Task: structure prediction
Amino acid sequence: MEACNAYYYATRDPLGAAGDFITAPEVTQMFGEMIGAALADCWKRAGAPGEAIYAELGPGRGTLARDALRVLRAARFTGAAHFVEASPVLRRAQKDLVPAGRWHDSIDTLPRRPLLLVANEFFDALPIRQFARGVERCVTVIGDELAFDRFGDITEDSPVRDRAVADIAATLGANGGVALFIDYGHDKSAPGDTLQSVRGHRFAAMLGDPGEQDLTAHVDFEAVRKAASTSGAKVSALVPQGDWLRRLGIARRAEALARANPDQEDDVNAALERLTGPDQMGALFKVIAIHAPDWPDPVGFA
Ligand code: SAH
Result:
């Protein structure tokens, strides 16, 4: 999964109608704006520390960063933007939208400063392991085809994901800041096979065309919570994306956008529904926050 996704992202921009999948920031500017507003509010209530920076994991085309930073700048946040991104193709796209960004290969080299960090649909792309009745499931070759070497009731874990969360939480604990993670997944660890492969906006054969399809797995937010708590960081409740965006005022933002661009009213309302509708992205996607013990609770979680 790690090797396939590394190749997949290094060799294309998979986002958009012509690609394999679409993400919330690509649907509407309102998504990044709500993230920017939530981070700006937290930063201000923390005393607006001048040394804080914006950080993002897996920023895709840089759209979320551009929209969030527009709101943060309006709130007088002047910190630099730091991106953890493996793909050279996507780094170029990010540089077009955020020319002053700084790039990192991994979380380890992010500056030791208070972070306003966001990761949207990043953790689902990190590699998981699967176990069938306690034995790790592997991929083998049968004839010319890839195949799983065992079946049975599947459980999953993701040491890579746990490490990433623990590293972020430790950095927040040591230097201050807040992190928002948005992804699809479940509140409680539970058995089940959540690995999926997507190509051209459709599910594809799991082991077909390695490196040419997007491999993801649902995020186990109970594991995220555990990994974050080991370093003493505070963890919010896990809330549906639709509820969180509405509490932040996305409906009012949609009204203002529609008023300013009357010809786009239908598009704005469709985008609002797509992000918040329980039958669309509103319930499947969830938001969780981690923050330093001496930073305030971010809004939208209670
Ligand atoms: N956050 C963006 C893109 C999501 S796709 C959006 O919402 O539109 C996943 C992103 O994570 C891509 O930018 C991909 O290149 C990056 N990525 C995946 N695995 C990574 C890894 N191990 N290290 C750094 N970046 C990674």
